[in-house]
Amino acid sequence: MKRLALALAFAFALAPAQAQKAPAKKPAPAPQQPADPAPLPDKPPYEAQMLRLAELIGALAYLRDLCGANDGESYRQRMEQLMEAEQAAPREKLAGAYNRGYRGYEAAYSHCTPNAETVMGRYLAEAGRIARDIGYRYGGS
After folding, report:
1. What whole-number distance in Å separates Cα of residue 101 and Cα of residue 51?
2. Residue 98, Cβ neighbours under 10 Å: how many?
């Protein structure tokens, strides 16, 4: 299904460029066949929140180790658990968001600063709010 969607996206992206280069002859009309279009998977309504949560977890994994909490591995494990539990958002997107959060702070901070401590506090609070919100709005009862 993903390959089909990518192939279609690629084909539609190339269509205008190829149309401009094509000679001016009319194509033969295609025979009409009833087509059963494959339903495209809908992304979950909370996907943006999940991606933000993954980014926060990545940032926290780096910052917590940097500032001496030495529990960055537990954040990596939480991310792995999140990716195993979440079937609706693709693993690649979640892993990419995690890596963005981790690498962003890795590039910005080489040692713990008061600002890094502040960011950690804010990110812990935001991650908690997002997790509660997703659980409350979309969690099964």
Report:
1. 10
2. 25
Instruction: State the DSSP string of the chain.
Output: -HHHHHHHHHHHHHHHHHHHHS-SPPPPPPPP----PPPPPPPPTTHHHHHHHHHHHHHHHHHHHHTT---HHHHHHHHHHHHHH--SS-HHHHHHHHHHHHHHHHHH-SS--HHHHHHHHHHHHHHHHHHHHHHHHH---
Instruction: Please give the residue that has the higher pLDDT: either 65 or 13.
Output: 65
Rounded Cα distance, 60 and 116, in Å: 10
Taking alpha carbons only, the member of 60, 30, 39, 47 closest to residue 126 is 60
Q: For 76-109, how does the pLDDT look when each residue is reduced to its tens digit (9 = 90+)?
A: 998 998 888 877 668 889 999 999 999 999 999 9
